[in-house]
Design a protein that fits this description.
mainly beta
Length: 116
């Protein structure tokens, strides 16, 4: 499951959407995206990849609610977040995780940015 989007000069483009989720983009005084997951949380063997890039843009991104991580005997749920910023401003507000007893979870967070 993955989502990939970009802002270039404050213009939104959805490059890939392959997951059971919705997103809302509001462009009034500032770019704002809320990611809404339809599923109940992250289960064993789930692999979620979120990639977004900003160039000469400003963005506030958030999730709708806490993410539940369900128990597993040996498999992990994996969440990968990749962000690239070029001359841009980002506020990323990711809601809390609720880990159930015996849950197994890996979260990868990669941030690339320039001097500005």
């Amino acid at each position: 499951m993955s989502i990939n989007f970009a802002f270039i000069d404050d213009k939104f483009s959805l490059n890939k959407l392959n997951l059971p989720s919705r997103h809302y983009h509001f462009n009034e005084s500032e770019n704002y995206i809320k990611l809404l997951n339809i599923g109940e949380g992250i289960f064993p063997k789930d692999k979620i990849k979120t990639t977004f890039s900003l160039e000469n843009s400003s963005l506030v991104i958030t999730t709708e609610s806490a993410t539940k991580i369900y128990p597993s005997k040996k498999e992990f749920g994996i969440n990968s977040i990749n962000i690239e910023l070029k001359n841009s401003n980002l506020e990323f507000i990711n809601d809390e995780l609720i880990l159930f007893k015996d849950s197994k979870y890996i979260q990868l967070f990669k941030l690339n940015f320039d001097e500005s």
